[in-house]
Amino acid sequence: MSFLGKSSSEIIVAGCQNVMFKVDIEQGRIIEEVPTGSEYTIMKFCRYVLAGTNTGLVHVIEPQTLTVVKEWQAHSSKINWMDAQNNYLVTCGWTTRPHAPPMLDRLAKVFDLNKREQLPPLSFPSGAAFVQMHPKMSTTAIVASQNGQLQVIDIHNPNTFNLHQANIGYSSCLAGLVMAPSGEAWGLIDQENAVILWGSPKTLQFSETANPTEFADEIAPLRAMPIDTDLPLSVIGLPHYREKLFSFWPNEQIYEVGHPAPVTDPDILKTMVAAQIGYRARNPRKTLRNQVQEIRITDSGDLTIAAPKFLSEKTHEPETPTSTERRISDAEALINAALLGSTKAEVPVMYRNVEIKYSKFGVDDFDFKYYNKTRHSGLETHITNSYLNPLLQLFKYIPIFRNCALQHAAGSCLSEKCLLCELGYLFDMIEKADGQSCQATNFLKAFSSIPEARRLAITEDASNQPQNTLEARIQSASRFLLEQIALDARRISDVEFGRLVQYFCTESTVRMHCMNCRHETFRTEASRSIDLFYKRWTLFSQSAPTFAEVLIDSFNRETERKGFCNRCKKYAPIVSRPQIRSIPSVLILNTGLENNADKRELWATPGWLPVEIGLVYHGQTVMCFEGEGLRNLRRTRHNPEPTIYELVGFVADINSGERQKSHLVSLVNVAMSDQEPGDQDRWHLFNDFLVRQIPQKESLQFASSWKMPTVVAYQIQGARNFVDNSWKDYLDTRCLYADYSMNHTDDSRNGWVLNPEHEAPQAGTHVAIDSEFVALQQAEIEIRADGDREVIRPTRLGLARVSVLRGSGMDEGIPFINDYITVNEPVVDYLTQYSGLSEGDLDARTSSHVLVPLKHAYKKLWLLLNLGCIFIGHGLPSDFRTINIHVPKSQVLDTVTLFHLQTQKRKLSLRFLSWYFLKEDIQGETHDSIEDAITALKLWRKYEEFKDAGIVSQMLEEVYHKGRKYGYKPPSEGQSGKLTDGRSTDISSSGRATPTMFREAASGPQTPMSKKLSRDSEYFESPLR
């Protein structure tokens, strides 16, 4: 058996078979089988894996490919012992004799691993049985015979040696030789299991460190303790421990087992009689047919947050606010108990995976408020590539990053794949949500559409490689995002790009030195993130470095690689060393732990990550200070002045433990991005849509077994609370007045767009809106054995059409936005009955409608939102959620809410309200967004009339009374006001009507909008005029 490297977790195992196994000792499984062709009896590692066979051969094996690169016939028979150190291999073995048994070879063979050639052997007349290389003297070896004779000999000068004799028993012989890592002690083992220790008693030291050797404590005699009924159990001592026990099995060794055998009903056993084959008994009929007993044992002691009830379920419960408060308080108490129990190796419940449960109403029915009581919004997880959520939360709370994204989004950029714009939209949505759950749908869609992201394997559908761990993926994604937003900024403005370089780029001049001809070349580099570099260091070799020392080594990291030298005209070793020219305002650090135990233990050291550091840039070198060194630097007024950086937060990799995959969370000091300055730090945990305030000490406390940082962010102290909202004063609104279409070049839309002179939207401008959607992915449903259906992932919808109408003025009711949106992915269902769309309507090659990209339509809505417009519509929260925009309640007039009687749970559909109040029948065969928007606008006007007259409550009572009479749907045409014999319209919690499955003829007069809307007309007449 041999390790494949000093810091490797993989070993190679061989034996008396023609195959060897590559084993991952951390996962405890065989990962590769390699044929050998020989039986290996002994293995050593020194640059190569050195394997001795039972025929005297030594195979030199490359550890990366496990292929034999050199064979050496050391002895004519079996190799008995060998050792390797500092590119030298020394072997002892057996030699064959004619007509006699093998005997120990009197020569110890020497092999140079560097030159791959044999050196002169070492003579040992007594028969070389064992050999050990000295760990500190590179060419010194100790050779021993079976009778205890020892020679300390120099490989390069074999004629000079020291001879010793071990005192072993007369009838015994030597069975082994070993040397301490310090080189100051030898251990000899004989066949009687006696250990003979050689060394100086005064300077005896086994390990390389200078700590004195600790011997076992004397065992104290046990106190006699009678076991009887009078002895209290409290006097019996139990061990106290804080670390994980060896009996704690890792996750990969825990498996689900089969069900235990069910218990036979006693009534069956009573009536059981022997039959021709087996036994038969009377059926007691206590269960249903095919119903089986639940026999799997459930772990009731698991610390998990009880899933909240669906919102639709809560509406059917009686008003008992204390029960809800009790559930929340119980969960909080359980969480606090778990967090305070830091002596356990278990992951606190707040850090574990959280999942969204779906009802028949979809994700809108999930109670996100149960997981977040703060004013900081979380991000939902049911979207592809949502593993980026913690990184997005970290970027959002870096004020400089937030300002750059919003200023760019407010500009003229209309690129569909601009991630900087999408970040601006997302950050604005999170701020406006004020604690409500959000989703990064549009950003993640743009992220997935970039080919470079797929090539880097940082998208979920392209990251199936086993070496692409979650830690490596999030660090690669961080580098990619920082590079991509710089490209997005350069596409718009060199000034904006220069500002991003100043904020995020570490500029340096790299000096490349050829080791052959000493030729030097220079190149300029700009890195937007820094990979931390840990010099060769272990917990047992020297004192641990500080964070400041690691950061200095990372800035001034010297690398050596093979490259082409223009002077040598060949490949040669090239040494590269950076010379720092400027340091950025924001430091993004990738920890690069790579599952290294020493690095993880370093980060687990309490207080190792400082909340404040100081960088001094002087003479193309960077010096870093922390703690007491930083305080001394401030007192001495160092020249140049240090640049102080504050820790904003970090993304942490959480190994959730049993039966759960590892996932990412972010821990952020949200006080850094408050608009009101304050010295008090407030750390929050963002575990997707679970958000909770936690103490700073807990945030910065790491555990090597389950919590490790992956991406760390620092920002200059001067940018604390620098939240710039001036972008709202410089919104580029030109796209609101532009007549743009992907598939039409005529001027047929000139009557639609707004006139910037007298129709410019402003705060308080009323607009009516409605949207239509198509299904891009069907719901994933799991059907259980009992027939219950559980939604694993809901139907994914995409915006297909949006219509926005003027809400006031001479042209009230005339649309100025009526965009059909191109879809760049397959549509699985056009939902024609509800959307009015059919195949070909969203294809630029065949559609007769005005088609625009999603980014173009979204930006128009985003501009109207930030200009302060008030949106009028029916069931708008559901539409805004799918569009992926958050509109504050102060800017929404939803007819579902306006015409809802608080004492009733049912909400009325748009079609029923239109039939009752407007005497119009809409949504006859399909839905039309313009028709629905104008209807909502009319209903709002009608509501304002009722409000002015003071009869709102009376009218609501009447409409609900009429609804109960007609089943909350308008009677069909030809029935003279009588209800059609059929099932009622299904009204969801949003209040939007789902059309009935059978065709209903439209009743009532045709709306003026449907008369006037035509592509051949040159203007549009207001239906409300």
UniProtKB/TrEMBL annotation:
Transmembrane segments: none annotated. The keyword Cell membrane does not apply. The keyword Hydrolase applies. Its main location: cytoplasm. It comes from the Eukaryota. Residues 966-1025 are annotated as: Disordered. Pfam families: PAN2_N (PF20770), RNase_T (PF00929), UCH_1 (PF13423). One of its GO terms (biological process) is mRNA processing. One of its GO terms (cellular component) is P-body. It catalyses: Exonucleolytic cleavage of poly(A) to 5'-AMP. It is found in: Cytoplasm. Residues 377-717 form the USP domain. This is Poly(A)-specific ribonuclease. GO terms for molecular function: metal ion binding; nucleic acid binding; poly(A)-specific ribonuclease activity. Keywords: Cytoplasm, Exonuclease, Hydrolase, Metal-binding, mRNA processing, Nuclease, WD repeat. Residues 1013-1025 have a biased composition (Basic and acidic residues). Gene3D superfamilies: Cysteine proteinases, Ribonuclease H-like superfamily/Ribonuclease H, YVTN repeat-like/Quinoprotein amine dehydrogenase. It comes from Heterodermia speciosa.
